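Protein: Ribonuclease R
Species: Ancylobacter amanitiformis
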Amino acid sequence: MAFIATHGGDVGKREISRHFGLDGSDRIILKDVLRELAEEGVIGRKRRKLHVPGALPAIVMAEIVERDEDGELIAQPVDWDEEEQGEAPRILVRLARRGRVAGPAPTIGDRVLLKTEEIPEADGRIRHNGHVLKLIDKARALTLGIFRRDAQGGGRLVPVDKRNMGRELAIPPDFAGDAEEGDLVAVEVVRHHAYGLPIARVKERLGSVATEKAISLIAIYAHSIPSVFRRETLAEAEAARPATLNGRFETREDWRDLPLVTIDPPDAKDHDDAVHAVPDLDPDNEGGFILTVAIADVAAYVRPGSALDREALVRGNSVYFPDRVVPMLPERISNDLCSLRPLEDRPALAVRMVVGANGRKKRHSFHRIMMRSAAKLAYAQAQAAIDGRPDDTTAPILDEVLRPLWAAYAAVKTARDARSPLELDLPERKILLKPDGTVDKVIVPERLDAHKLIEEFMILANVAAAETLEEKRTPLVYRVHDQPSLEKMSGLREFLQTLDIKLAKSETVRPAQFNEILARVVGTELAPLVNQVILRSQAQAEYAQENYGHFGLHLRRYAHFTSPIRRYADLIVHRGLVRALDFGRDGLPESTTPEQLAEIAARISASERRAMAAERETIDRLIAHHMAQQIGATFHGRIAGVTKAGLFVALDDTGADGFIPAATLGQDYYLYDEARHALIGERSGEMHRLGDRVEVKLVEAAPVAGALRFELLSEGARVAGGRRGSGAPGRGGYRRPDQRSATSKRPGKRR
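Structure follows.
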């Protein structure tokens, strides 16, 4: 296992045999050993190569975080979830020899692409070397915060980073610039004192955050999300001309008579996917359907190496906030030329799929087309038509377009159910804003068949794209999701045992095993708890040049193809299809190497994590602003997280997350029981466990940091004989009842 982990997924049976000097008979035993390890979840497979789940990849995007006592740079992976993968590994940064890498040398705060290798016989916390392949982003040696003016003309900076709460900076009048009260500003620290606050100078005024409508500004700048397009990028977008049937680089099929329709959220501004279905008249496929998924042909406008392409790679994806969108591409491309507007000619890449009556795909083909959407529909609007409430838009297309779509979905759903992907019940909340940008309410949108239809058709199209590119031996970026690590599975088994639920240890892990457990608790008080714990046992989906399948969807090969307007990974897949199927001269360059795609995969995976963190923090701040006027009010909720430091609680009505420090739970000594996901009183045996219903009082709100602190009003369950469980005494627990500092939830996870 150590040897496999060292090679970061670039090792197979041949390399293992050579390294350990195995002969023919030994290799038979090796095959059995590797099979057993794979069944236990200790190792996984990426194509024919082996890897240890949760191990550091061979190529990783990392951020330089500090220098050690010898002055050497230390980095940590950017795309790393400590909750699911454990503590982030520390990497000793090795600079290339002079002349090998152009540009400035990296320093603390920079993002770099590293080629990693395990340090032989490492005995400390640093177990990996990282050789710099490329400097991605230079550090912004600035601190973000809210400027609070004082009577002398200067002021103080209130940092927006939760980790720096309470660490204000002093800004003298001469260093305040034109900053006004309530502005979001970026400052540099110019002097430190042994006593008193550090002195800082305002370097950039980023805008006022006096209203909640500007809260997303904090996340945009805190995470260095590019929000203003470069001049050359905008010029290139404005110069783009609409694609034609017989263009300069490609020839298209004319599909404008096919009544494709778009089905999106009601507030969507760009429409990049359209669908169509019709019964298959082939007598050999009785009860089957022909499905068509057409996706906006972004590759026709964003060509490799162009200004649009370079900036799209830097952004990686669009970022969605409650009050704004930071797009990957300029509006001229995303909302105009590539938006599949009704009754307007638009270029697209389409996949036509033949499915049987059982919903399984029999065959498929890709086409570069010119299409004309027959209608733009919202999810609820399409669903209402099927449910017998058509309107002026849906009535004319109900029988010929919508009903066949729903009939095809019924067949596809049969195949999905047979495949048994992971079925977690985790409702997603959506914040609705008032016209002034303040929070109106938080809702859980109804999950309609219209949503599921589009989701399943997109999954089928994504699988078809991956299969075609593999068949044509064209390199691509996969969307992958590893199976849970051995450590996570072991912890999950221990937890389920406390609920008298067994999870087999020797069998190969499959999503169906989790679904069986989830089905046992549906409709019970245990359901939210079990859903959360199973979610936390899962790995994080990511992009990779090597394929090791998608565990959650239970698919052997999967690539993102259906959203090239907002995801760079999809654009790479589009270009690969153009090249593989000889659709034109604007496909993936022949010079593209697997190493280049591995670099792109690392960068866009990091961009995705960055976007998720920014979106989550913005919601935290909006909710904290919304609740700041409700100090002292009581709420009902559920324990959403347990650590040795305290409890994280999610409220029922708003979904707001806040923290209850362990020190405030009472005079008892509360210890963390890892197996139960609980804090348990050492003397009283009072237990507060993940998923428990609780009543809390809001005692503190820090809107700038998006932090809430609660006081627990309800009592926990009692464990006979005091604390017991697998967690060792001393792993956590607090006596001090005077601890009073706001904090906020840990980052959540997303499938």
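Remarks: Residues 499 and 726 are 14 Å apart (CA to CA).
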